[in-house]
Amino acid sequence: TVKAPFTKAPAVVAYDWNGFYAGGYWGTSLGQSSATTPGGFSDTVNFSKRGWTAGGTVGANWQAGRSWPLGLEGDLGYLANDRRFDQWNDSAVTVGVKTGGYATARARFGYLTGRSLLYLTGGAAFVQVEDAFGGCKNGFCGGAIISPVAVSSTRTGWTAGVGIASKISQNWIRKT
Predict the structure, then answer these.
(1) pLDDT digits (tens, 9 = 90+) for 2-38
(2) 106, 119 contact by CB (below 8 A)
(3) What is the DSSP annotation of 18-81?
(4) What angle do CA 105, 123, 52 make, to 5 degrees?
(5) Which tens digits make up the pLDDT trace of 104-156?
(6) CB of 128 closer than 8 Å to CB of 100
(7) How many CA atoms lie within 13 A of 107 on its CB side?
(8) Closest CA relative to residue 161, chosen from 100, 99, 114, 109
(9) Torsion of Cα atoms, 131 then 136 then 140 then 146, to 10°
């Protein structure tokens, strides 16, 4: 009798997600604004406007076991979303919000499935915002003088999300 040859199964490649990383991103943003006239007027305006975003990411992962990476990640970018408009009761009053730079600081927890990482992330968010109101033609609006006002501030809040990061090679990943 002839025995079948013994062959070993191919080794399972374990992907290492330990260490520091840095990268960049770009995308589209969508903003929504709503404004209502004060006093006895009953005008309300709602609209959405598209913009763009771009920036950089830095982070570090610690892989606990074969399948459970933990990490810290931060973003620093620009959010170009100008939601101001120049129409208010048929006069040229500028009303709205404009965004600028932003940053996040987040924790990340994931599960590895081969070369892909499924993850949850969440933490703090910061964005530069400019609120604008005023600026009628020649400063005169239907019997009232409205001087342009713009107030800039940095707003804080939270951010959370889910994603998939896949290894393209040992040192390159793609996130969605």
Answers:
(1) 676 766 665 555 678 899 999 999 998 877 766 666 6
(2) no
(3) -EEEEEEEEEEEEEEEEEE-STT---EEEEEEEEEEEEEEEEEEEEETTTEEEEEEEEEEEEE-
(4) 65
(5) 999 999 999 988 999 999 999 999 988 777 665 555 555 555 566 778 899 99
(6) yes
(7) 3
(8) 109
(9) 0
Q: Which of 105, 55, 104, 101 is nearest to 80 (CA)?
A: 101
| DSSP 8-state class, residue 92 | -
CB 137 within 8 A of CB 144: no
Question: Which amino acid, 106?
Answer: R
Q: Name residue 166's beta-bridge partners.
A: 116, 174
How far apart CA 61 and CA 70 sit, in angstroms, is: 6
147-87-31 Cα angle (round to 5): 100
16 DSSP assignment: P
Half-sphere exposure of 77 (CA within 13 A, CB side): 22
Instruction: Dig out the tokens for 174 from the structure.
Output: 């793609």
* The total number of residues written for the chain in this structure: 176
